[in-house]
Amino acid sequence: MTHSEQIPEQAPGSAAPRDWAWTRLETPIGPLLLAATRDGLAQVVFHADERTARRTLTRLEQRFGGPPAPGIPHLRTAVAELTAYFSGELRSFTVPLDWSLTSGFNARVLHALADDVPYGSVVGYQDLADRVGEVGAARAVGAAMGSNPLPVVVPCHRVVASDGGIGGFGGGLETKRLLLALEGVLPAPLF
Fold first, then answer.
1. E strand intervals along 7-106
2. What sign for the dihedral angle of Cα 87, 92, 96, 102?
3. What's the pLDDT at 15?
């Protein structure tokens, strides 16, 4: 399941339309689709081929109440920061984030991850559950990672299994390995 398939549905007429924009960014882990609102970066989607992009954009139009609009400055910031991250020049993102595509427990876990797990480090699923006061909720943390609308920027790739395994990843295990290698947690692939 891709991150784009996990956008909470919004009832028609339940909120005012919001300005948003999107772009596709070529990266060492494949194309990413980035979507931002005037509040901040709202979504990052892995493996953003034409089909995935089309599905994601249809859902975002429904969610935000209309088609994309020009002039969303956070999108330019996100592109610049992700480009610098992938070239090894950025360790901490400063682009504002629009958290509207997550809520409840998932949002609490993702905020803790974004705030407390820096570049080049990892955390276990259970440790992250403990940090948000949910002892025994390691599986729920795994589900929250799978629903992360802002992967890479909100670093769900830094969450690993307590047995030393890499754990799962919505972008695929090879993508997770590449991100952890970029941050020096794992050795770089030989080829």
1. 20-25, 32-37, 41-45
2. positive
3. 61
Report the alpha-carbon distance of residue 182 to residue 171 in Å, rounded.
15
Residue type, 110: L
Encode pLDDT of 128-144 as tens digits.
Answer: 999 999 988 999 999 99
58's enclosing H/E stretch is helix 50-64
Mapping DSSP to helix (H, G, I), strand (E, B) and coil, where does residue 124 land?
strand
Detail the DSSP E strand segments found in the chain.
20-25, 32-37, 41-45, 123-124, 159-160
State the Cα–Cα distance between residues 164 and 166, nearest whole angstrom: 7
The sign of the dihedral angle between the CA atoms of 7, 83, 90, 169 is: positive
Q: Residue 152's closest CA among 53, 68, 83? A: 83
Residue type at 175 in one-letter notation: T
Spot the catalytic one: 35, 82, 156, 159: 156
From the list 3, 153, 179, the residue with the least C-alpha distance to 79 is 153
> At CA 13, angle to CA 10 and CA 16, rounded to 5?
90
Q: At 182, is the pLDDT very low, low, confident or very high (cuts 50, 70, 90)?
A: very high
Q: Answer yes or no: 2 catalytic.
A: no
- Measured in whole angstroms, the distance separating CA 9 from the mean position of its chain's CA atoms is 18
Alpha-carbon dihedral 170, 172, 173, 176, rounded to 10 degrees: -70
The helix-helix angle for 104-116 and 138-146 (nearest 10°) equals 90
